[in-house]
Design a protein that fits this description.
4-stranded antiparallel beta sheet, 17 helices, single chain, 56% helix, globular, 3 domains, alpha+beta
Length: 437
C-alpha cells in the first residue's frame, strides 16, 4: 500500500473518531515531509494548526480539517462526535482544576473575610429557588408561525409582541420570586430594588434599544449615596464565573424580536431564564445578603478579598484570563471610587482623607459635567446622567469644608448626607421622582 492510501486510511479513522491525539501527533510528525509534498498548505493548516497540542480540543479541529479535505475531494462524509464530546469533558475538567488553583491562591484573602462574617453574621435566607426552574407554571403552548424570520413590519410586530409576552411570564415566574425572597420590591416592570441599613441593591433588565427583548441585565449593590460605577461589588468568580458565562452564552434569544417565537424559541427562552435565575439565586443574591451594613460593605477584609479576586485563572482553552478587573496603575476612569470612599471617610470622621478624595472627583469631572450642563441644565437631577449626579453630590459635600467650626461642619455633613440620600432614593428607584435646586 502506497503512502497516499495509508494517509487516506488514517484520515478515515480520524473522521470516525478512532485515533487518539497522541497517536495522531506521532503519525503526523513521522510523516511530515511526505504530507508536505501531497497536501496543500491550506489542508495542512486545517489538519495540524500551528498551535496544535495533543488534546481532544485540537483533535476536533483536526477532524474538521479532514472532513474539509474529503469534501473538497468530492467525498463528503459524516464525522463522529467522539472528539467533540471528549473535548467538552476535557474542558470541564481543566476549568475545574483552574478554579481549584484560583481558590487556593485567594484563600489568604478569603479566610479573613470569612472570619469577619462569622463575627458579623447577617440574616440567612432559605429559599427553594430550584423549584422555579423549567417551564413557568401555566405557560400556554407556543404560537404557530407561518414564517421563521420576520420580513414585514406586521411580522416584526407580531414577533416582538410574542417575545415580550414570553419574557414577562418568565420574569414574573422566576426572577420576581427570587428577588422578593431577598426583600426586593418592584420598581417598574423590569426592575427590583431593596434598601437596607444605608445600602441599595438593584436588578434591572435593560430593554433592547430597537425594541423587542432585553439587551442586558444590570445588578449592583452600593451605598444609597453612591452610583453603580467604580469598585467591584462582587468577587470575580461570582460576577464573571461559570454561572455568568452560561447566562451570557446565547443571550440573543431574549434580546432580538426578529424571529418567530415558536416552540423551540419558547423553550430556549425558558432555559435562558433558568441560567439567569441560577446566576442570581445561587451567586449574586446570597453574596449580597452577607453585606448587611455600611461597615461590612467597607470592611478592610472585604475590600482585600475583592482585590484578590479581580483576576481570574487562565482559561485552559484560550490561555487567557477568564476575567480581569485589575486596572493596574490606571485610575478609575470617572473617579467614582474617590466619591464612594470619600463620603464614607467623612461619615467615619476621616475628614482630611474624605475631602481630598471628593475634591479629586470634582476636579476630574468638572470639564465634562460643565459642558454637559450647558446642553442639559437639569442633568444633575436625571438618573440617566450618573456622572452629573455624582459630580453634583460630591460638590455638595466639598462645600461643607468651608465651615470652620467643627461641630457645625459635622452637622452640615449629616444634613448634606440626608439630602443626597433623599435624591438618590429616587435615582435608584426606591422613591418617586425627586427634584433639587
Amino acid at each position: 500500500m502506497g503512502f497516499q492510501d495509508e494517509m487516506k486510511q488514517v484520515f478515515l479513522r480520524v473522521a470516525a473518531g478512532e485515533i487518539e491525539p497522541e497517536e495522531w501527533g506521532k503519525w503526523w510528525n513521522g510523516n511530515k515531509v511526505k504530507l508536505e509534498e501531497i497536501l496543500t498548505r491550506g489542508d495542512r493548516g486545517r489538519m495540524m494548526p500551528a498551535l496544535w497540542n495533543a488534546n481532544y480540543y485540537w483533535m476536533a479541529k483536526t477532524q474538521s480539517g479532514v472532513a474539509y479535505y474529503f469534501h473538497a475531494q468530492g467525498r463528503p462524509m459524516k464525522t463522529s462526535g467522539y472528539y467533540g464530546e471528549k473535548a467538552r469533558e476535557e474542558e470541564i475538567r481543566d476549568r475545574r482544576k483552574a478554579m481549584e488553583t484560583y481558590y487556593r491562591d485567594t484563600a489568604s484573602a478569603r479566610h479573613p473575610w470569612e472570619e469577619y462574617l462569622e463575627r458579623h453574621p447577617a440574616e440567612s435566607i432559605i429559599f427553594d429557588w430550584k423549584s422555579l426552574l423549567g417551564t413557568p407554571p401555566g405557560q400556554k403552548p407556543a404560537k404557530i408561525f407561518g414564517y421563521k424570520n420576520a420580513r414585514t413590519g406586521e411580522q416584526w410586530k407580531e414577533c416582538k409582541d410574542e417575545l415580550k409576552h414570553r419574557l414577562k411570564e418568565n420574569l414574573q415566574a422566576k426572577i420576581a420570586p427570587a428577588a422578593k425572597a431577598y426583600g426586593m420590591k418592584k420598581a417598574g416592570s423590569k426592575t427590583f430594588v431593596r434598601e437596607k441599613n444605608g445600602l441599595v441593591s438593584r436588578i434591572q433588565f435593560i430593554g433592547y434599544f430597537r425594541g423587542g427583548g432585553y439587551e442586558a441585565m444590570s445588578c449592583y449593590l452600593c451605598p444609597i449615596y453612591a452610583i453603580e460605577y467604580g469598585i467591584l461589588g462582587l468577587p470575580g468568580h461570582v460576577s464573571q464565573g461559570d454561572y455568568f458565562q452560561n447566562m451570557h452564552k446565547g443571550w440573543g434569544v431574549i434580546e432580538y424580536g426578529t424571529e418567530a417565537v415558536d416552540a423551540d424559541m419558547v423553550e430556549s427562552i425558558n432555559r435562558k431564564f433558568d441560567d439567569i435565575l441560577v446566576f442570581l439565586a445561587d451567586g449574586v443574591l446570597p453574596e449580597w445578603q452577607k453585606i448587611d451594613s455600611m461597615e461590612t460593605y467597607f470592611a478592610k477584609e472585604r475590600q482585600d478579598y475583592l482585590k484578590a479576586t479581580e483576576k481570574g485563572p487562565k482559561n485552559p482553552k484560550t490561555n487567557r484570563l477568564m476575567w480581569d478587573f485589575d486596572r493596574g496603575e490606571k485610575a478609575d476612569p470617572w473617579r467614582a471610587d474617590d466619591y464612594l470612599f470619600g463620603v464614607w471617610d467623612l461619615l467615619s470622621g476621616k475628614e482630611a482623607e474624605g475631602y481630598a478624595r471628593l475634591e479629586s472627583c470634582v476636579r476630574f469631572n468638572s470639564d465634562y459635567v460643565e459642558e454637559r450642563l450647558k446642553e442639559r441644565p437639569e442633568a444633575y437631577n436625571d438618573p440617566r446622567e450618573p456622572i452629573a449626579v455624582m459630580y453634583h453630590n460630591a460638590q455638595l459635600f466639598v462645600r461643607t469644608k468651608q465651615i470652620e467650626d467643627a461641630e457645625k461642619r459635622r452637622n452640615a455633613l449629616r444634613e448634606t448626607y440626608e439630602e443626597v440620600c433623599r435624591f438618590m432614593r429616587y435615582y435608584h428607584g426606591l422613591a418617586k421622582r425627586t427634584k433639587r435646586d
